[in-house]
Amino acid sequence: MRILPVMAAVLSVGLSTAAHAQSCGGNFGAFVEGLKSEAASQGYDRARIDSFFRNVRQDQAVINADRRQGIFQRPFLDFSRALISQSRLTNGQRNFERQRSVFDRAQQQYGVQPGILLAFWAFETDFGAVQGDFNTVNALVTLAHDCRRPELFRPQVFAALEMYRRGMLDPVQTRGAWAGEIGMVQKLPSDIINYAVDGDGDGRIDLQRSAPDALLSAAAMLRAKGWRPNEPWMHEVALPQGLDLTQTGIRNELTVSQWEQLGVRPTHGRLPSGNLRASVIVPQGHRGPAFMVFHNFRVLFEWNQSFIYVTTAAYFATRLSGAPVYQAGNPETGLNQDQMRQLQQRLVQRGFDVGAVDGILGANTRAAVQDVQAQLGLPADGWPTPQLLGML
């Protein structure tokens, strides 16, 4: 979803948005005129600016999609079962065989294993089959105008303008996801500018039609974001009785050897080198599946910031790499969206930082839940339950 430097001004606006982060809302036409003035100040000629923005329209369907992300409110077991099917596993194997040489190159050049690329390729577009039908420029300008996340989307408008300048985007014809991502692995314009690779050697970059371009661009981005070549990202584990659950969670790290000394064991195969640092996460509490995750797992948040999405993609990547189905366990009942909002509000009242009060159990809310569970003498696994909500 997310380097070819030509205009330093374009790259700087894509990375530093403090001066314009509040420039949102109001009359849409006036907002577009402001974007055009800013583009001119960056050195773009007026004719190109006018051509780029000529047909731009506010798209209410984009706003509706942005507000409708209910799937991210599902618990891990439900979410992963919704996204992972036998069909996707089968198609993953078929696409691996079709593009084996490309996956070999991705691993040799960038150290990114096939399972990771296959997982995101599957989740983002079903291996290129469903890339979205939203006009990309309309989507980006609409979301930049909307005041929910202007600091994310305003820079992408100018990155899309730079793509247009380079002949990589047609403001009328280019279509993709509602959030402005383009291509088989759904990259935002700034990431296309910064990390796109001509994987098939035809002299141009086409992330919508060329699997080699899309896959190698994804690998290049992960490597640039800090992926450590050929290191692991996740391994399912079993927790011992009596483990201090305050040590679990993405915030806390020990070496693999230290986790083993505490009694954490792999559910299959062998754990990686004992010197690697790792966290143990329990996405649906200590009675559900448990995973040991490594540095490369954290890098995946550069692709998508949703904890539930990244955890599921990382797990699916292990399945595509030969791991068995997780041990589902018997998790405690969680909270619905309204209850989650109530919980977040009560945590905020107690001084905890949960991020947005949105009814979604993200990393910040999990950390706050774990801390308050420890204070109240509950199993501190970061999984909120009706009991916890009642106690608060």
UniProtKB/TrEMBL annotation:
Q: What are this entry's molecular-function GO terms?
A: peptidoglycan lytic transglycosylase activity
* The protein's name in its UniProt record: Lytic murein transglycosylase
Q: What keyword terms does UniProt attach to this protein?
A: Signal
A Pfam family assignment: SLT_2
- The UniProt record lists the keyword Signal: yes
Q: List each copy of the Peptidoglycan binding-like domain by range.
A: 337-392
Q: Which InterPro entries match?
A: Lysozyme-like_dom_sf (IPR023346), MltB-like (IPR043426), MltB_2 (IPR011970), Peptidoglycan-bd-like (IPR002477), PGBD-like_sf (IPR036365), PGBDSf (IPR036366), SLT_2 (IPR031304)
Q: Which GO terms describe its biological process?
A: peptidoglycan catabolic process
| Coiled-coil annotated spans | none
Residue limits of the Transglycosylase SLT domain? 28-317
Organism of this sequence: Roseinatronobacter bogoriensis subsp. barguzinensis
Q: Where is the signal peptide?
A: 1-21
Q: Which SUPFAM superfamilies match?
A: Lysozyme-like, PGBD-like
